[in-house]
Specification:
The protein has helices spanning 34-45, 58-68, 105-114, 149-152, 169-179, 203-214, 231-236, 248-253, 266-271, and strands at residues 16-19, 49-53, 74-77, 82-86, 94-99, 119-124, 128-131, 143-146, 160-163, 184-188, 193-198, 221-225, 239-242, 256-257. By secondary structure, the chain is α/β, with parallel strands linked by helices. It has 2 domains: 13-100 and 201-271, 3-Layer(aba) Sandwich (Rossmann fold), CATH 3.40.50; 105-198, Hypothetical Protein, Haloacid Dehalogenase-like Hydrolase, Chain: A, domain 2. It is globular and about 50 Å long. An 8-stranded mixed beta sheet has the order 5-4-3-2-1-12-13-14, with helices on both faces. Strands 8-7-6-9-11-10 form a 6-stranded mixed beta sheet, with helices on one face. Helix 1 links the parallel strand 1 and strand 2.
């Protein structure tokens, strides 16, 4: 067994440690517990490659990067469609190293017929989102600009988000399943929230490119997450860890399950790497 699959063992080489943000590193209110912050700092100080892996846009990710005190390394954003390298020499503290886009018109046209009352947001890289109507406060990072339908679907996009604030996640998932999405990657969130990415793009696919760039062996990878958009990441990692509040389908693909985010479940996982 490698060090990445044996909790508590001293790694022979630095590990790639991929961390989801919301529900894993920070709680659902956006707060970072002191214990998690200290554990993240210790892992970085030990020489491991800590990589943020999130559904958030770059604009929404950078405040958490600063909160964690990270000054180097990589962050996978927009569920794998955007990868940035942290670089204090850049005006915004990062440089984009990879983006994957798709034509949003076909899928949004189809979903407009199936879920006509859904709010739609199309990511505007490094700025915020173009939206069909304002999203609830705090749900989208960066600037929101309300545009007409033609502007929403006019340009290639890294990610598209649909949201029904008045619906349950179960009801929304049924609508999405009836729509029969094809030729895109998608994940339904813990609320009535749907993220759509280019086909084949996921946190796992982006992390594989980062792993190769860092020259880390496949067996020296660890990932921790809590939602359906983390499934590919957890199966990609040699040691995939699901948070305690994760849905059963996420726990089923993980190698182990830790405590919930409210219990600082990430802390024992990170401490096991030291």
């Amino acid at each position: 067994m490698t060090a990445a699959t044996t909790p508590g063992a001293a790694p022979r080489t630095p590990l790639l440690v991929a961390l989801d943000l919301d529900g894993t590193t920070i709680d659902h209110s956006g707060a970072l517990s002191p214990a998690v912050g200290e554990a993240v700092t210790a892992v970085v100080a030990a020489g491991h490659h800590l990589v943020i892996s999130t559904g958030r846009s770059i604009v929404a990710t950078m405040p958490i990067v600063r909160l964690l005190g990270l000054q180097r390394g990589y962050a996978v954003c927009s569920n794998g469609a955007v990868t940035m390298a942290l670089d204090e020499g850049q005006p915004r503290g990062y440089r984009v190293v990879d983006t994957v886009t798709f034509d949003p018109r076909p899928v949004l046209t189809m979903l407009r017929e199936q879920i006509p009352d859904a709010l739609v947001a199309v990511e505007d890289l490094g700025v915020g989102f173009k939206v069909s109507a304002p999203f609830p406060d705090g749900e989208l990072g960066g600037e929101q600009v309300v545009v007409d339908w033609e502007e929403l679907v006019a340009h290639p996009a890294t990610r598209v988000t649909l949201r029904r604030p008045d619906a349950s996640s179960e009801e929304f998932m049924e609508q999405v399943e009836r729509a029969g999405l094809h030729e895109v990657s998608y994940a339904v969130g813990w609320t009535a929230w749907l993220d759509i990415n280019p086909e084949g793009v996921s946190k796992g696919s982006a992390l594989e490119l980062v792993r190769r760039s860092l020259h880390v062996e496949p067996g020296d990878t660890v990932a921790v997450g809590d939602q359906r958009n983390d499934i590919e990441m957890l199966t990609w990692a040699a040691r995939g860890v699901a948070m305690g509040q994760a849905p059963d389908e996420v726990k089923a693909v993980a190698d182990e399950v830790t405590g919930t985010v409210d219990e600082d479940g990430l802390v024992p996982v990170l401490r096991s790497l030291l």
